[in-house]
TrEMBL record:
Pfam families: PV-1. The chain crosses the membrane at residues 28-54. The keyword Transmembrane applies. This is Plasmalemma vesicle associated protein a. InterPro entries: PV-1. It comes from the Eukaryota. Keywords: Membrane, Transmembrane, Transmembrane helix.
Length: 356
């Protein structure tokens, strides 16, 4: 080909390159995209921090526990009513049976008395007394059975009442625990996580607005347009992927935070219950101490009175003992004097002969 030394005119794309310096470069659009991507990353980090502070509500365990307690309470009530009905029927049946036995026994006694009267009229009175004694023993046994049955019924009634009170108390504590749990989870955690889908939607909207505003710029490089389309697709897929993975992570962390909040509510209710028990124990202790002080004071007074009476008795006994010792010493002196006189009389033989 012929190539001259003169400059040739540039046609086509070469002519467009003269105006390329006046257009905005690809780095400008990349900076905008990176700015929005950093913005969404910061929003995601803030959402994660808020999620780590609060938890997701799970009320199934407490509700199941309350339902189980209600079912057990209703079942115990029905069993109590059924047992009382059976007990009444059994008591009535035993009473009727005892009545029939008593009537049969009385009839046997009557026939026996008639036969005894026919055979031995003289022993009728003794037999009547024996029959009355036997009837009295039967009545006494029946009375003892009724008393024992009443005691058992009263003890079972106290037991059922105590179990009912415990179930009601546990139900109230669980309801309070559930209220605390709902307040912690609903008011704090749910409201704080409502902005995550809004953030992703706003991010996608901003990306779409960005490309719609700058679509009027006819990029001369096909690679730049393809790169921007790839960036747009990557941003859309990134937002959906981040939202899905974030939701999974939120579910996992939410279960842990829910467990922590539940344990906190349980500790609060247990603390309240223990405080109530402690206050009751303190009141009961003070009452017991006051009662023991009164009993101790009364016992000391009674003991002082008894000791005083004993000391007076001991004093009287000591005085009587001294009197008896003095009288005994006087009697011993008199006995000694009499013995001396007797010895003197025995020592004089002339006197004895004269007396003879």
């Amino acid at each position: 080909m012929y190539n001259s030394g003169y400059s040739h005119t540039k046609m086509g794309l070469a002519a467009k390159n003269l105006h390329k310096s006046k257009e905005r470069s690809c780095g400008y659009y990349m900076r905008i995209v990176l700015f929005f991507s950093s913005l969404i990353q910061s929003l995601i980090i803030v959402s994660l921090v808020l999620f780590l502070v609060y938890g997701e509500p799970q009320q199934t365990v407490e509700e199941k526990r309350i339902q189980e307690l209600e079912q057990s309470y209703s079942r115990l009530s029905l069993e109590n009513v059924a047992l009382r009905a059976k007990e009444k029927n059994l008591t009535l049946f035993k009473f009727v049976l005892k009545k029939y036995d008593c009537s049969g026994l009385c009839m046997c006694f009557a026939f026996h008395r008639l036969s005894v009267r026919r055979r031995d009229p003289m022993g009728c009175l003794v037999q009547v007394w024996l029959d009355l004694l036997l009837l009295y023993m039967f009545r006494l046994e029946h009375f003892q059975w009724v008393c024992c049955h009443l005691v058992k019924t009263y003890s079972s009634r106290i037991k059922w009442n105590m179990s009912t009170i415990e179930l009601r108390r546990e139900k109230a504590l669980l309801e309070e625990r559930l209220d605390i749990y709902e307040k912690k989870c609903k008011e704090d955690f749910i409201k704080s996580l409502q902005g995550i889908p809004d953030v992703t939607k706003e991010f996608l909207k901003r990306v779409d607005d960005l490309f719609s505003k700058h679509i009027s710029f006819q990029l001369t490089c096909e690679k730049q347009s393809l790169q921007l389309e790839n960036i747009r697709a990557n941003c859309s897929s990134l937002s959906s992927e981040v939202e899905n993975k974030l939701q999974l992570y939120l579910d996992k962390v939410g279960s842990q935070i829910t467990q922590t909040v539940g344990e906190n509510a349980k500790c609060l209710t247990e603390n309240k219950r223990l405080n109530e028990d402690t206050s009751w124990c303190i009141r009961n202790r003070s009452e017991i101490i006051e009662g023991n002080k009164k009993i101790l004071k009364q016992t000391q007074q009674n003991n002082d009175k008894e000791v005083e009476h004993l000391l007076l008795d001991i004093r009287k006994l000591n005085a009587n003992t001294n009197l008896l010792e003095n009288s005994l010493s006087v009697k011993n002196i008199e006995i000694k004097m009499l013995n001396d006189k007797v010895n003197d009389l025995n020592a004089k033989p002339g006197v004895n002969n004269d007396m003879k």
